[in-house]
Amino acid sequence: MNRLVNSTSPYLLQHANNPVNWYPWGKEALDKAKAENKLILVSIGYSACHWCHVMEHESFEDEAVAAVMNEYFVCIKVDREERPDVDQIYMSAVQLMSGRGGWPLNCICLPDQRPIYGGTYFRKNDWTSLLFNLADFYKQKPEEAEDYAVRLTEGIQKYESIEFVVAQAQYSKTDLQAIVNNWKRYFDKQEGGTGNAPKFPMPNNWQALMRYGYLMKDDEIAEQVKLTLHKTAFGGIYDHVGGGFARYSVDGRWHVPHFEKMLYDNAQLISLYAEAYTWQPDELYKQIVDEIITFSTSELMSPEYGFYSALDADSEGKEGKFYIFTKNEIEEILGVEAGLFSIYYNITENGNWEEEESNVLFRKDSDEDLAAKLGLPVHELLAKIAASRQKVFDARGVRVRPGLDNKILASWNGLMLKGLSDAYRTFNKPEYLELALNNAGFILNNLLGQNGRLSRVYCATSSPDKPVAFLDDYANIVDGLIALYEVTFNEHWLQQAKSLADTAIAHYYDEAKGIFFFTADDDEQLIARKSEIMDGVIPASNSVMARVLKKLGLLFDNESYIEVSAQLLRNVMPQLAKYGSAYSNWVMLLLDEVFGINEIAITGAGAETFRKEMENNYIPNKIMLGGNTGSLPLLQDKFGASTQIFICKDKTCGLPAHNPADAIKEVEARFYN
């Protein structure tokens, strides 16, 4: 065993028996590289990553390859989910060198951590040859290696950086149109989503476009959002037997998934489909939300109500083996019902993907269309499919399950807290709220130290008072706590959100640059202190902070929060029109700036009843506050003998409405005409 044997990361533990003399990232390895003047080999991945497993099996388990690595390099393994700060730096390096990135991520660095070469997956022979060449290059031409390291490190430090913008901008619908007109050139109008292959769900993209389509009254955008939501939910990227989405599809039709299931995707997709149901009610959206939550609670939730990180793509060393079926297997499970099930999910004798006779389940037709083709009442079709699906689920349950990454990450639990709160907001199911409350309790009891600082990773045996946490941990938990306040009107959650936001500002915000760093001012100093600005499969921590500070500024009447949010948007605004999909969370902030935010205050004994009724109406640009009592500035002098709804904007409130219908009329009159 190597030095990874004492790690808590499932990914590092996967490599603990490699013949490679792996070290975890830390002082021991970094000091060794300097003392012995050896190149550092930084290899980064995560436990559910299929190609990480492939490279491990081909190269890192090979004695001959390991001998080369051990002879010439200090080899460091990094779990990108535990140390996204390290991953950011070396991903930037590889993207600068090759124009692309991914995992496994392999970077060769000088003894002081500055990179000189990098890439992603390498075949065994290519990997060995590369290692020999780089070791020889460093020995024979150290000056050239130094020169390259200098230039590459300068690029890393400038990568994803922005200028401080002083002038206060005036935003308009024209700005929004410019962003979206460029963005929609990349739409796939046949299969939904953008581009060809691979296809990622990108929930934040479609949430932003949903809001844009509604607020801008753009039917073309609205139709693209609906197409994408349906195609994604019908595709093989969705687990039709057990619920939950895979990370992406390898093809352009959402058909063949890369089978790993990540908490962060599914958490955000709960929010997306829940909001879509309020926007344009569709039973499919409701079904998807419920099935993702069922999957997440049964397969990703710890006994303490924290959520684990991921399920592996592989089982029994084979990608997707847990999820795929031959037609014969379906017939053995279902008997006479197999024919209908096979039609519904497009299961064929020859198979529908790369492995002979194997099938990835997916849908083509709506229930109504298929029922009409088959001459069945819709309710009968659905009842038969539900019964068959349960039998297939039970049969699948005895298979060898994919590996579980049981890390509990603060950031991703914040996303899940928001997803559960959004689901309750839309569907009013008490079990969703109970899950959200339990998850919030877990976060605050186990990830928040006495000193008010977060820990990124939950560990039952250590105190969170010696934290390693990053900006995304603070941003996403604050976002989740605000969402929980808005569906409970319990100010405890909001005060916790405010406290965490204050901590983030104190330790991560650079007032001179008007941007948040990803790492705290008292964290380990790496070769660059980066800022996360571009939205990806998870929104950038700066964009989340910008949006939550805007909300907190309104809720607490705190101008300093609003100014930090405004400064962030000013700085990023010049980038937005270039590539909208990489700034979708910023686009939602811009929508709020252009259309204003409806501050909806509901006071009195019937506040909860009125809140639920108000939530049945799609108002994407709003914050909700209220209750029977409350200390927030906007609630002062608004408690009377009856339940009232106040619609406010820019510190000005209209006359109170005494029922939700009148309040909605006021919203429409003031904001949408």
Describe the fold and architecture.
The protein has 673 residues and is α+β, with helices and mostly antiparallel strands. The chain has 4 domains: 4-158, Glutaredoxin (3-Layer(aba) Sandwich); 173-193 and 273-310 and 406-594, Alpha/alpha barrel (Glycosyltransferase), CATH 1.50.10; 323-397, no CATH class; 598-672. 50% of the residues lie in helices and 10% in strands. The protein has a 5-stranded mixed β-sheet. The chain has a 4-stranded mixed β-sheet with strand order 18-17-19-20, sandwiched between helices. It has a 3-stranded antiparallel β-sheet with strand order 8-9-14. The longest helix is centred in the middle third of the chain and has 19 residues, at 378-396. The relative contact order is 0.08. The mean pLDDT is 95. It holds the Pfam family Thioredox_DsbH. This is Spermatogenesis-associated protein 20-like TRX domain-containing protein.
Global morphology: globular
Strands, total number = 20
Number of domains: 4
User: How helix-rich are the residues, as a percent range?
Assistant: 40-55%
Specify the biggest β-sheet: 5 strands, mixed
Q: Quickly count the helices.
A: 25
Low-pLDDT segments:
none
Q: Which value, in Å, is the CA radius of gyration?
A: 26 Å
CATH-scheme architecture of the largest domain: Alpha/alpha barrel
Average predicted local confidence, pLDDT: 95
Classified by CATH, the class of the largest domain is: Mainly Alpha
Q: At the third CATH level, what is the topology name of the largest domain? A: Glycosyltransferase
Strand ordering within the main sheet: 1-3-2-4-5
Helix and strand content put the structural class at alpha+beta
